Amino acid sequence: MNDLLFRNGTVFDGHRFLPAGTVVRVRGGRITGVGPAESLGPLGSAEPVDLDGGTLLPGFIDAHAHPVFAGHQLRHCDLNAAS
After folding, report:
1. What is the pLDDT of residues 34-83, one digit of tens each?
2. Half-sphere exposure of 33 (CA within 13 A, CB side)
3. pTM of the prediction?
4. Pairing of strands 55-56, 10-11
5. How far is CA 31 from CA 42, 49, 77, in A?
């Protein structure tokens, strides 16, 4: 399994934009290194992914919920079994 090396773009780590020239190394779907390319050790078989000036962002999880609405629904009488 080859590593991926995301380069040539802006990297946002979820808190701040990292310095220009930051690359991100990924192996098996997990980030294994972030920093200047020379700090990540031998890149050998890493497959370069050119971000072409774009921005690399962390994964987003949609934690959107309406707990008040759900609680309101539970307060009603459930007559589904009566039909």
Report:
1. 999 888 777 677 899 999 999 999 877 666 766 666 666 667 777 778 86
2. 19
3. 0.67
4. parallel
5. 16, 14, 49
